[in-house]
Every structure is written in C-alpha cells, then in structure tokens.
Amino acid sequence: AQSVTQLDSQVPVFEEAPVELRCNYSSSVSVYLFWYVQYPNQGLQLLLKYLSGSTLVKGINGFEAEFNKSQTSFHLRKPSVHISDTAEYFCAVSDNFGNEKLTFGTGTRLTIIP
Amino acid sequence: EAGVAQSPRYKIIEKRQSVAFWCNPISGHATLYWYQQILGQGPKLLIQFQNNGVVDDSQLPKDRFSAERLKGVDSTLKIQPAKLEDSAVYLCASSVSGTSMGAEAFFGQGTRLTVV
C-alpha cells in the first residue's frame, strides 16, 4: 500500500515570489507520482507526472517537480507565482503495475498575496 | 475533446434519504473511478471499474453505497440511506486503460452532496 504526506496544509506566498510545495510518499514498490491542481468549485487537473527517466519534470503553468528516490520526495516548485495560481494542490501516487489507482495526499492550499 | 461529465453539481438531502450521482466518462476510456473528497481532505477512491467490471471496491461502504457501470460507459453511484458523514464532493474520473503506464486520470467537476 502507498501513502502520501503533504506537510503544509496552507502556504501563503507573495505574488512573483518563488514557492515550493512539499510531498513525501511511502511505498514498498516502484511508483508513479503526480501533482494535481484544484481550482475553486472545479475538478482536479493534472499539473505534471513522473513515470521514469529524468528526475526533473516540467508541467503546465510554469510548474516543475523533482523526484528524489532516496528521500522519497516529489516537491513542486514555481520560480514566480501569479494570482491565478491560488488553488489547492494535491500530490498523488500510484503503483506501476497498471491499475492506476491514485492515492492522494491531504492537499496544500496555496494563497497568493498581492 | 469533451471532458468527464457529472450531474447533478449540487445536492442537498436529509439523512436517511437516498441519492444518486451520474457520470459520463471521456469517450473510449475503459477505466472509470469514483472518489469521495471530504472537506479538508484529499480524494479517496471508492470504486474503480475496468470496462463494466469492478477492479477495486475495497473502500466502498457496501452497506449503503452501490455503483454500476452500464455497458462499460456511463456510471451511477448511489447512497441509501445517507448519513451526515457522507457530506462530501463525489468526483468521477476516467483514464484510457489500466494497461497504459501511468496514464492520466481526467476528473469531472464533481457533485457536492450535503446531508442535513
């Protein structure tokens, strides 16, 4: 079984400042890792995913994440945030045996301060 | 490409009543998921279908929740009778196939259920 820990429930950041949202996972098998974003009253939208290969993954809206196997982490970063980045961000993991069952963290609410 | 469609968007019912949610996945997607998202928590998988067969329903409270996927396309999730703790957003998602490596799951906008 897998689990995901998002250490920060809320992160306030000034506009145009950099941000890092932390995600750690636990699994006994190899995994795929995902970051999803949820805007108010919307469903979840995929930001980026790590399947294999390069540990630095680039996604939509200028976000990127780095897979660190030794630290079992998959932190999300953006060098300069915008008001429109205000949303809830979820880290998720699935095993790589093809059933694609996603296990989500509890989410981090990113608030951009003008 | 049309996304995952869910209805209704909002539903308010009294406890012990029954309720049903509907989901139409993206055309051609074999895998369909129902997730429950309680306020302040991440989505939790309730049930996963591969075509019209159940792959995983280990976290579905089967004494009150039921789900079916007709002809491997549309799906309905039912709660009978509802409890206060069932208040949540119910998300439907679909993906191409379980055989695809890390294929993206596409989510609908969800149904917000309030049980009073």
Q: What amount of the residues of chain A lies in strands?
A: over 45%
Number of strands of chain A: 12
Please report the two chains with the greatest interface, counting residues with C-beta closer than 8 angstroms to the partner's C-beta.
Answer: A-B, 25 and 28 residues
Helical content class of chain A: under 10%
Low-confidence stretches of chain B: none
Poorly predicted residue ranges of chain A = none
H/I helix tally of chain A: 0
> Over the alpha carbons, how many angstroms does the gyration radius of chain B reach?
13 Å
How many E-type strands of chain B? 11
Q: What coarse outline of chain B follows from CA principal-axis ratios? A: globular
Q: Name the structural class of chain B.
A: mainly beta
| Pattern of helices and strands of chain A | EEEEEEEEEEEE
Largest sheet of chain A: 6 strands, mixed
Note the topology.
The complex is a heterodimer of chains A (114) and B (116).
Chain A: E1 3-5, E2 10-14, E3 19-21, E4 24-26, E5 31-38, E6 44-50, E7 56-58, E8 64-68, E9 73-78, E10 87-95, E11 103-104, E12 108-113
Parallel strand pairs in A: 2-12
Antiparallel strand pairs in A: 1-4, 3-9, 5-6, 5-10, 7-8, 8-9, 10-11, 10-12
Chain B: E1 5-7, E2 10-13, E3 19-24, E4 31-37, E5 44-50, E6 53-56, E7 65-69, E8 75-79, E9 88-95, E10 106-107, E11 111-115
Parallel strand pairs in B: 2-11
Antiparallel strand pairs in B: 1-3, 3-8, 4-5, 4-9, 5-6, 7-8, 9-10, 9-11
